[in-house]
Amino acid sequence: MTTAYFDELAGRLRDSGVPDDEVTGTVDDLAAYVAESGVDPDDEFGTPGEFAARLVSSEGKSEEYFKRPKAAKRLFWSRRFYVFISCYFGFWVAVCVAWIAFAPAESRSRFLIGSLVGLVAAAVTAGVSIWRGTRRHGE
């Protein structure tokens, strides 16, 4: 009876769209639990149809799917983001040009050096952040 129970459960899970490897893992775990504890699967879990329905969400994905950690999107590149970056870069260029044109001669080079150091620091920070995010979620 135990084998028939798990065969029917596996069939119902597959019919619900659960991937084969997940079905196999779930059924193997449940069979091991039943073998260890000696309980009747009908008494412990209910009928195979009811149990399969509980394991599968309304969207057709099993509960195990929702427990798995989701990989975050590495970067968000939208049109709004490109517009923002373009406007910000344009503003930065305008400030640099205005500073070079109107600042006293001795402060021009300091401003440009400071701007370049800030730009390099921002690029390194962004690069490290992207690299860590890719490494963490790419596994």
Give the strand tally: 0
Mean pLDDT: 77
- Count helical runs: 7
- State the low-pLDDT regions, or none: none
Question: What count of domains describes the coordinates?
Answer: 2
The helix/strand order is HHHHHHH
Task: Please give the share of residues in helix.
Answer: over 70%
% residues in beta strands = under 5%
Q: What is the structural class?
A: mainly alpha
Major β-sheet profile: none
Determine the N-to-C terminus distance: 40 Å
Shape label: rod-shaped
Rg, rounded, reads 29 Å
Keywords: Membrane, Transmembrane, Transmembrane helix
What is the element layout, followed by pairings?
Elements: H1 2-15, H2 20-37, H3 41-45, H4 48-55, H5 63-67, H6 79-102, H7 105-137
What does this structure look like?
The chain crosses the membrane at residues 81-105, 111-131. This protein has seven helices and no strands. By secondary structure, it is mainly alpha-helical. The protein has two domains: 2-67; 79-137. Helix 1 runs antiparallel to helix 2 and helix 1 (2-15) crosses helix 4 (48-55). The mean pLDDT is 77.
